[in-house]
Amino acid sequence: MSEHPIQGLMKTAMESIKDMVDVNTIVGDAVETPDGTIIIPISRVSFGFAAGGGNCEPENIEESKAAISFGGGSGAGVSVKPVGFLVCSAVHGVRFMPVEGNVIYDRLIDLVPKVLTKIQEMLENTKSDSMDDMDELAETAETQGK
Questions:
Q1: CB of 99 within 8 A of CB of 81?
Q2: C-alpha distances in angstroms, 33 versus 12, 39, 97?
Q3: What is the DSSP annotation of 103-139?
Q4: How far is CA 39 from CA 42, 75, 96, in A?
Q5: What is the pLDDT of residues 133-143, one digit of tens each?
Q6: Which listed residue, of 45, 49, 56, 109, carries a Cα 20 to 30 Å from 127's Cα?
């Protein structure tokens, strides 16, 4: 059975979309800075597709013997929107830096491990300081007792 003309329209449009959108469109090429930090752009890709057509009735017998009288069209649209950058560095680790500035919750989530580390360090320092104070008190008590 021969292919209907609408199939050809759809196939052409889908192949065009496939050629336009690949993985490098969503996750861009990595860029390395002089200090060794690697920056990878991340994008959101949206696309739409439409196709339609219709057959016309032949006016006479000669036209009916000819090819299918068909009229149709197809179209597609692609939208690429930058979302942010994936930043990988030895100093700060891996972070996602969004393009939009109103992402307070994401920043807070990124900061939680750092805050917990700082609190843990402060508690350890306080504990070691109090142990030093206890040692000093013990030494003072020994010297006063002699």
A1: no
A2: 41, 8, 16
A3: -HHHHHHHHHHHHHHHHHHHHHHHHHHHHHHHHHHHH
A4: 10, 35, 10
A5: 667 766 766 66
A6: 109
CB count in 10 Å sphere of residue 48 = 10
Domains contained in the chain, number: 2
Same domain, 85 and 123: no
Asked if 103 and 55 touch (Cβ cutoff 8 Å), the reply is no
Furthest-apart CA atoms within the chain: distance in Å: 129
User: Is 14 in the same domain as 86?
Assistant: yes
Whether the model pTM is above 0.85: no
One domain, residues 48 and 119: no
- If asked whether residues 134 and 82 sit together in one domain, one would say no
Instruction: For residue 70, give its domain range.
Output: 1-102
For residues 9 and 51, the answer to whether their CB atoms sit within 8 Å is yes
Write the DSSP string, 21-32.
--HHHHB---EE
